[in-house]
Specification:
With about 180 residues, the chain is mainly α. The protein is about 75% helix and about 0% strand. It has helices spanning about 10-35, 45-65, 75-100, 105-120, 125-140, 140-170. Helix 1 (about 10-35) packs antiparallel against helix 2, helix 2 crosses helix 6 (about 140-170) and helix 3 runs antiparallel to helix 6. The longest helix is centred in the middle third of the chain and has 30 residues, at about 75-100. About 25% of the residues are buried.
Amino acid sequence: MEETTTPAVSTRSVGIRYGLIMGIISIATFVIFIVADVDIQGPARWINVLILAVLIFLAHKYYKDNGDGFMTIGQGAGIGFWMCLVSSVISSVFTYVYVKFIDTSFIQQMMDKQREAMEAKGNLTEEQVDQAMNMTSKFMTPEMFLIFGLVFGILFGVLIALVVGLFTQKKNPEPFV
């Protein structure tokens, strides 16, 4: 009888698998927040962070369960990198398409909410609010959403993967066997 062995999983394959899942979940939560008229700049944004941390935990578990049972913190960070690269590309491209072509008033609505928040604080003059909004408007374009989504999605995601990896790592007691 022939014995077949399945190849060990790689950090990239696990990261891509869970990155696709996270990308789809990110789009779904974005659409739900838009339809429900939830302020995505408020506390609701932390829902995706929590989901990301849970998916990173599950990805680390999957890697250990389907590999040799061990995972270093570097491997955990590698899984997080691939995961966040894939999910950031998916969600950032979707957001770009949404704000550029589907709801072109989205950015202006965010700018209006931001102006209202600044004015509600009452510690800035009208001129200071105008200056702040002028500066903010330079960064509130569909293209900047795409760039910032990619860069900060990857950086923040790897940081979360490192923190989760501190708890999920399992060092091989005999690394040279």
